[in-house]
Amino acid sequence: MEKTYKPEIVERKWLESWDDSLYYFDAALDKPSYVIDTPPPYPTGDFHVGNALNWCYIDFLARYKRMRGYNVMFPQGWDCHGLPTEVKVEERHGISKRQINKQEFRALCKQLTQENIAQMKGMMQRLGMSIDWSKEFVTMDDRYKRFTQLSFLKMYHNGMIYQAEHPVNWCPRCETAIAFAEVEYEDRDASLNYILFKKVGEEQEVEYVEIATTRPELLASCVAVAVHPDDERYKDIAGRELVVPIFEHTVTVYEDESVDPAFGTGVVMICTFGDRQDVRWWKLHNLPLIASIDERGRMTEVARGYEGLTATECKKRIIEDLNAQGLLKKREPLQQNVGVCWRCKTPIEIISTRQWFVRVMHDEIIKASEAITWYPEHFAIRLKNWVDSMEWDWCISRQRIFSVPIPIWYCKRCGAVKVASEDELPVDPTMTSPKMPCANCGGTEFVGEQDVLDTWMDSSLSALWVAGWDLNAMQPSGKGIEFPVALRPQGHDIIRTWAFYTILRSLALTQKIPWHTILINGMVLGEDGYKMSKSRNNFISPNEVIQEHGADVFRQWAAIGGAVGSDVQFRWKDIVAASKFMQKLWSILRFAMLHLSDYQYEEGSAVNLRVIDKWLLSKLNKLILSVTDAMENYKFDEAMKDIRIFAWNVLADDYIELAKSRLYGRSGDEGKESAKYALYETLQTLSKLLAPFIPFYAEEMYSYIKPGKSVHKEQWPEVKRDMINAEAEMEGDLIADITRAVRRYKSEHGIPLNAPLGKLEIYVEDLDSGDMENATATKVELCKDVSKIENDENTLDVNGTKVRIIKE
RNA sequence: GGGCUCGUGGUCUAGUUGGUUAUGACACCGCCUUCACGAGGCGGAGGUCAUGCGUUCGAAUCGCAUCGAGCCCA
C-alpha cells in the first residue's frame, strides 16, 4: 500500500469498475420504495457548486436509504426548454430566431441542450452520484412533451386552465409574457417629475394640481388620478375632473386609501399600466384601458405625436415638451426599485393581452403545504407568504419558440377553441391540423396557437413523471411505487416557483400532495461570505476541487459545511481539512492491514476482550446510534463530524496508540487476537458508515477488509446493544486520560515522549493497565492508600484519580 | 419596503426542552523526524457568547428593543 492516499487513482478505478445497475430501482423487489423527485436542472452546461451541494445531500440520502433496505429511485431529469437556450443559440450561430423557421431553430436548441446535458452528466458521475440513469428524463423528448400536453388537456377540461385578456408582466426585449416568479427587482436611478394637471371648469382663472410621477411617458395612458380620502389638501378636487397635459383628455379624481400622502405631492396618476398597484386601482374603480406601450416596448398610436418611439425616448421628449409648455414644475432624483426580466434585466412593462392562465387555489395549496413535512421547518412560511401575496393567476403562455406548444387550434370560420385530442399528442398545432372538424360550426380550417408553455409547466410535473403517474387511470403505472413520493430536495430560491407549481399541479391532477417531505438546501457563498457571482469574482467550480483533491473531499465538504438549509460558505481550508482526513483514514487502514491482512474474522469470536477493546467497541456502537439518528434527521454535518471525531480521536489517537504493542506482539500473543477482532470490527463498520459520504474511499477500504465485496451492497450497520458498556468506557476513558496526562507531564518536563519513567503509581482499586504501560513506556503500580501521597508537581489529578510519577 | 435566517476566541463553527471549568476546526506558540500517518504526533495560549433592558435562584440558550450581516423577494 502506498504511503499517501491517491484519490485520483482510487476514484478513477472505482468509476470504471462500478456498474450503473448497482443503483437501479428494481420494480420486482419486494422492498419499501423511496422515490426521490430529483431536480431537473436547466442544462446550461455548468454544474455549479450550488448544484453539487444539493446533489451531495440527495446522494447521501439515496445511498443511506439503499443500505437501510429501501428500494431507492434516484432519477435524473433535464428541464430543457426556455429562453436562455434560445439566446445562446442566437449568439452561437449569429442568427435571430426570426430569420429561420421554428423547426430549424428548435433543432439547434435541442442540439445545444444535448451537448450541455452530456457535460453536466459527466460532472454528476464524477462526483459519484448514485443516480439511476435508466430513469433519466428529458423534458424536450416526445414522451415528456406528450405528458405535459396531456396534463394541459386534463386541466383545461376540469376548468383549471383558461384563456383571458388580463394585464401580465411583459418583457419588451424578449417579447413575451412572464410570470411574477420571473420578475426580479433592481435599484435604478430615476427622476420624480412634478407635472401640472389643469382643473376642469376653471373659466376665469386657470388652476393646476401638481402630480409627481416617475413615468411621464405613460401620460397618454392616464385613466384617473387619486388622492387619500383624509388628505385635507385635496378635499376640493376629489370627484372632480382634471385635464391630462399634452394629451388633453380628462380624468376623474378618486379617493383611495392606498395612496401614500407622503409620496411626491400626495396626488398619484393611475395609468394602464405603470405597476401592479395601477392594476389593482384599475380593477377596483372599473377604469378604462388605454394601452400606450406595445409588445415591443414602443409607443402606440394612442400616444399621439410620440408614436413609434421607445418608452425611454418618449419619456425624454415628453419632459422637454412639458417643460416648453411650463407644465413641468420640477424634477428630483429618486432611487427606484424597478421590475426587470430575470433573464435579460430589461425593465418589464405591464401589458394587457390575451393569455392562458392556470387557476391558483390559494387555500388548497396552503393546506397541502401544511400536510408536507418541511425540513428545515421554517421554509414552509416562505411558501405561505408567497401564496398569500399572489394577486393574479399563473400566466402559462409564452411568446417563445423552444418550449412545449399549447395543444390548441382556433376555428377559422367561427373562432371557437379546438382542443387537441389525446391521441394526437404530442402535437405542434402550428404544423398540423386537428383530425376532427370544429364542434361549433363544422369548419375544417384552423389556425394553430402560436404560444408555447412556460417551462415550469414541464418541470412542475417531475414528481408525477418519476412516479410514472397515469393521468387517466389516476395511479402510478409502475410497480412498487407509491404516490405521493418520498422526497423533494431543492433550493430555497425556487420555493415560490418549483415547489409551489409542483404542489399546485399535483393537487389539480391527482388531488394529492406530490411528496411527503421537502428538503430545502441553502445556497453556496464564496470565500468572502457573499453569494458567488461573476462580478465579485468569488466563483469556485466543483471541478477545481475534484481535480486537486477528489470527489470524496468535495462530498465531505458538502456534508460538513453546515446544517442542511443554511447557506454554506465555501472555504479552501475546509477542503484541505477534508483532504487531511482522507489521508488519516488511509493511514489507519495501512496500519490495520499490517495486522489484519490474513485475519479470519468471525463475528463474536473474540471472547477475551481487553478493557480498551471493549471501550472501543462500546464507542463504535454509540457512533452507529448517533450517525443513524443524524441521517434520519438529515443532519449530515453532525453525522460526518461524529465519524471524524471517532476515527481520528478515538480510533487513531487513543485506541491504536494503546493497542499497538499488543498488535505488534511485543509481549507475546496475549491480547493480540482481541485487538485484531476489535480493529476489524471497527473498520468494517466504519467503512459502512462512510459509504454514503465518501463512496470511493469507503469502497477502497472495504475491498481490503472484504476482498471482492462492495460496501455499497451491504446493509447499514445494526447497533449491538450488548456491546455498549458504560463500565468499560469509564475505565477506558481513565486509561486514555492518564496516558494523555503522562504525555503532558513529559512534554512539560522536556522528557522525550518515548522515554521511560521510573514508574507510575495509580491510586485506584482496579485497572487494566497493560496498554497504558506500553503507551507510556512506563511500569504501572496500583496503590491503595491515597492519604500518604504528597501533592507536589509529580502528582497528577486525572478526573479525581491520583497518579504519582516516580522519575527514577 | 417585506419575509426568512443569523450575530459565540484572529477566522469559521457546536452548543434548538435555560443549570457544573462554553465544542471543534483553521490560524498562532512550544516540543517531537516514535517502526499507520510531518498535509503528521504531543502539548499550550486565546472567547463570557453583537449591544441594552427584562423574565428567573440561575441565560449564549426565553422575551422586548437597538445595531449589524446574509439570503430570498415586493
What would you say this structure looks like, in words?
This protein has 808 residues and is of the alpha/beta class. It is 38% helix and 19% strand. It is built from 21 helices and 31 strands. A hairpin with a 6-residue loop joins β10 and β11 (250-255). α1 crosses α19 and α18 (672-690) runs antiparallel to α19. The longest helix has 29 residues, at 636-664. It binds one RNA strand of 74 nucleotides through β7, α9, α15, α17 and α20.
Record the SSE blueprint.
Blueprint: H1 7-17, E1 33-35, H2 49-67, E2 71-73, E3 77-78, H3 83-93, H4 102-126, E4 137-138, H5 142-157, E5 161-171, E6 176-178, E7 183-199, E8 208-213, E9 222-227, E10 241-243, E11 250-255, E12 267-271, H6 276-284, H7 311-324, E13 328-341, E14 349-358, H8 362-371, E15 373-375, H9 380-389, E16 394-395, E17 397-398, E18 408-411, E19 417-419, E20 446-448, E21 452-453, H10 456-459, H11 462-466, E22 469-470, E23 475-476, E24 485-491, H12 495-510, E25 515-521, E26 524-525, H13 542-549, H14 551-560, E27 568-569, H15 572-596, H16 611-632, H17 636-664, H18 672-690, H19 695-705, H20 726-748, E28 759-763, H21 770-776, E29 780-783, E30 795-798, E31 801-806
Helix pairs in contact: 1-19, 3-4, 8-9, 8-12, 9-12, 13-14, 14-15, 14-17, 15-17, 15-18, 15-19, 16-17, 16-18, 16-20, 17-18, 17-21, 18-19, 20-21
The structure holds one RNA strand of 74 nucleotides.
